[in-house]
Amino acid sequence: MSHLWRGWCLLRPGVLLYGGTIGTTQLHAHHAVHLIVSAEPFTMADAHGRRLTTRAAVIPPDTGHAVLAGARGALLAQLDPGSSPGRSLLAHSGAGADASTWSPPFPHLAHAGPSPRHRQVAAPLTFTEPSNGHEHSFEAAAALKIVEDWTGHRGAEVIPIHPAVEMAIAVIPTLLIGGPVRLDVVAAAVHLSPSRLAHLFSAHVGIPLRPYVRWQRIQHAIRLVAAGETLTMAAHSAGFTDGSHFTRVFRRNFGTAPSTLAAAIDWLP
């Protein structure tokens, strides 16, 4: 069955969360650890056309995938690969480039479905829950709790990250405001050689620094759109050449145009 994207979206440091109906996408790859949990089966394909029909999937960063058949009642989370929840989910899922590895070995969760409206929820432990008063506030808070269940961040141990990489992740958002982010500048800020930082960053985050910075720019633009900026203004403010440049990068990362999702999403504060 063909479905159109329609739902709510919440952006917090380290996670972009979407709830509602997921539609189809073109083949794309983004620099996030990708989690989809749905009340209905959906079908995905990897870069080689291998298919998977499931109700839960974890896709690693920079891994080509497409949604061939969407579903209603879905929860989609894109986790920063440098965050502890993102690294924890990826480490425990065993997901790789082949679609057959995307259905995670968490049977007690994989068949539960999101059903966020019907769960009693305490305050999320990792992510800041949305403010009250929005139509989807309770649903989003419940969804954040589900993401924490999946990532193992309900009191589980934190996977360690090298201190220099942690410092680099912290300094990159500040550098983004000033323009292009160069490896040598980030390395100087964390007191390492560029080659050493490049090696550590890839090893601990799972992707090189350059695509990670690009992912941060996309997230910054999304935050601005959620705050009411036009796509063109958001693109310029996030460091893209123009709206067309942002659209091309967005399509490569999400498999659809930003205007398509912007019209279908109700953003939560």
UniProtKB/TrEMBL annotation:
PROSITE patterns: HTH_ARAC_FAMILY_1 (PS00041), HTH_ARAC_FAMILY_2 (PS01124)
Pfam families: HTH_18
Gene Ontology MF annotations: DNA-binding transcription factor activity; sequence-specific DNA binding
Swiss-Prot/TrEMBL keywords: DNA-binding, Transcription, Transcription regulation
Superkingdom per UniProt: Bacteria
InterPro entries cross-referenced by the UniProt entry: AraC_XylS_family_regulators, Homeodomain-like_sf, HTH_AraC, HTH_AraC-typ_CS
Every HTH araC/xylS-type domain range: 166-264
Record-given protein name: Transcriptional regulator, AraC family
